[in-house]
Amino acid sequence: MSRTSDRVVVVSGGSAGIGRATVEKLVTGGARVVTCARDGDRLAEAVGTLPGVTTVTADMADAADRVRLVEAALAEHGRLDAVVLNAGLGWAGLVEDMPDDVVPGMVALNLTGAVELTRLALPHLLTAARERGRGDVVAVSSVAAWSQVPPLTVYSATKAGLAGFVKGLRREVTARGVRVHTVNPFFVRTEWLARGHGHAPTSDADARGRLSRGIAPERVADRIADCLGSPWSRTVTVPRWAGAARLGEVTPVNRLLDLGLSRQTGRIRRAARQSVEARVD
Predict the structure, then answer these.
(1) Residue 209 carries which DSSP code?
(2) If we measure between CA atoms, which residue out of 87, 85, 93 comes closest to residue 106?
(3) Phi–psi pair at 215, nearest 5 degrees
(4) In this structure, are residues 181 and 233 in contact, taking their beta carbons and an 8 Å threshold?
(5) Angle formed by the axes of helices 17-28 and 40-47, to 10°?
(6) 3-class SS at 5?
(7) Structure confidence at residue 1 (pLDDT)
(8) Out of 124, 128, 220, 224, which could bridge 135 as a Cys pair, Cβ 3.0 to 4.6 Å?
(9) Is 155 annotated as catalytic?
């Protein structure tokens, strides 16, 4: 029997990329999945016909929508066993070039939204642990949480905040049967860059040519599913060698990054702009 068989799992951001691959992976293993996205039509087209999937049009940066998502899972299945915190946004460029609304939006979705969705789900996950032996929180983070480098400075900060939340939460709930995991990918082939710059694709056809370079999202989904079956809380990287990013916090590597990267801001700005323009034009 699959490790996710018959479990009720909420997955945020399920219309594309890592979220969509995760929904597909979990339902293949027999899970019942409740997933959300801001574009309800795209979500329904992507995963709405899969067996055991319930779709909800919702924005995880919105408090009322977070409540609706959890309530939808309870109304549909009467319980909640796990939450995958996947919805997120990024923005590539220097901090001084960021538009006024980008920083609040990233913090609201990447950090506040993840923490608040967890808070709403936690009473039900603790019930799952008491009655069925376990509950799980899986946060999709990034290697950027460990090595904060331009042009992803603010995105990195939100993921570092998420990592801190996960560590603290583990110390609250581990002895009560809830596992808390982070999955930290390197670059992934998704719509992440186009979405973060206001050009969210409306269909799979529209997404062609807009995908960032990187590993397949299915590789990340596999590790998320592994976490949901792990006997302990885990922090994993995809691919595994990307864990070397932790060295960015170690002296003297961090000092070298401070000095070296700050001398290359002109090149970093140009490279970021070129990468964005290639995916939004």
Answers:
(1) T
(2) 87
(3) -75, 165
(4) yes
(5) 40
(6) coil
(7) 52
(8) 128
(9) yes
